[in-house]
Design a protein that fits this description.
The complex is a heterodimer. Chain A is mainly α. Helix content of chain A is about 85%, strand content about 0%. Chain A has one domain. Chain B has one domain. Classes of the chains: A mainly alpha, B mainly alpha.
């Protein structure tokens, strides 16, 4: 019973954190979009807002994996592999987008200092 | 070595780097809007907490799981040989390793949840500031 409860907690935490990460990166994409509109510079906000979808898909796949519908261990392994792959790809794209936006912020700060 | 485990850990490491850079970016962005609050520390803490999650995942997969499989093999051999002197300590070791693995898994996902909540809080607060 205790093990079941712990497993339930782990699954709920995995899904909730996937959703929170996705929302956190999405909001950061909105911030980049605001700067893009104000300073009329490319901030790659679209890619910043799309990239975290993989983290959300990771959460969805983990939810499917832990559901009682999937009983086949081979299917479970495929789902687990796909979820981890999506998490990795998404994290790489998020990092690339954030680095681009960070370099733009550096330019803005330099411009502000010169003024 | 499982491929999905390596992918997960590489993804987590990249996520740690991305969140740490969000912290650096938020620090610069708070300077731009002349706010003196320390919300940029939240993503930095989130990256640190996520590093704990990664460390526990690595320890569980590369230290405890091989120990568990070694003990299970020894346990099955002892069971076949009806060696009751070896059986009880091995059973206890397997049970203890299983409990340790469940604890580390729960710790890892608790860290994951905390880090994600801190990231969401920091970016939401900043978006609220610039939306005023």
């Amino acid at each position: 019973m205790t093990d079941d409860l712990i497993q339930l907690y782990i699954n709920a935490a995995a899904v909730a954190s996937g959703i929170f990460f996705w929302a956190g990166f999405l909001v950061f994409g909105f911030i980049a979009r605001r700067y893009s509109v104000v300073f009329k510079r490319a901030t790659f906000h679209t890619s910043l807002m799309i990239a975290p979808s993989g983290i959300l898909l990771y959460a969805v796949l983990m939810m499917i994996k832990s559901s009682p519908m999937i009983k086949d261990p081979a299917a479970n392994m495929i789902i687990q592999g796909a979820a981890c792959g999506l998490l990795f790809i998404s994290a790489v794209f998020c990092l690339a987008g954030i680095l681009k936006f960070n370099s733009l912020i550096d330019e803005l700060l330099k411009y502000k200092e010169q003024k | 070595m499982k491929f999905d485990v390596v992918l997960y850990e590489a993804g987590l490491l990249t996520l740690i780097a991305a969140i740490a850079i969000i912290g650096v970016s938020l620090r610069k962005l708070t300077m731009i809007v002349r706010e003196k609050k320390l919300i940029w520390l939240l993503p930095v803490f989130a990256a640190a907490v996520l590093a704990v999650s990664l460390a526990s995942h690595v320890y569980a997969n590369f230290t405890m799981l091989p120990q568990l499989s070694t003990n299970i093999n020894a346990l099955s051999q002892a069971a076949v040989g009806q060696d009751s002197a070896k059986l009880e300590p091995l059973k206890a070791a397997v049970a203890s390793l299983k409990a340790g693995l469940v604890f580390l898994k729960a710790l890892s996902f608790t860290c994951f949840l905390l880090a994600s909540a801190m990231l969401l809080a920091s970016t939401s607060i900043y978006l609220r500031w610039i939306s005023k």
